[in-house]
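Hey, I was hoping to borrow your eyes for a little while. I'm sending you its amino acid sequence along with the backbone structure tokens. Take your time with it, there's no hurry, and the full record follows here.
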Amino acid sequence: VQLMESGGGLVQPGGSLRLSCTASEYIYGLDTMAWYRQVPGKQRELVARAFAASGESYTASVRGRFFITRDNALQAVYLQMTNLKPEDTAVYYCNVDAVHYSREEYWGQGTQVTVAS
């Protein structure tokens, strides 16, 4: 299974971007879907999670600005990012957990988001 992200790019401070992530094939036992981000020299940071049943969680720095949604039929996850700040600049990664016969974790290749004027 490969996760494919799209929607990254260059945006001015205060602008918006929408990231998308879809799977190359059907994922059995789809569970939590999430977005992480990483800047050079720092650990990968959890940005937002969308849980299988319902509900979302966000890291404090993006709460109220970023919104994660998922489409279980399409097995896709999205991250709507608004009021972007320079400190949001990072490579954003899609992450999916699945529980079928065992727990599996999948990562996307990453998409660059740059916030600069």
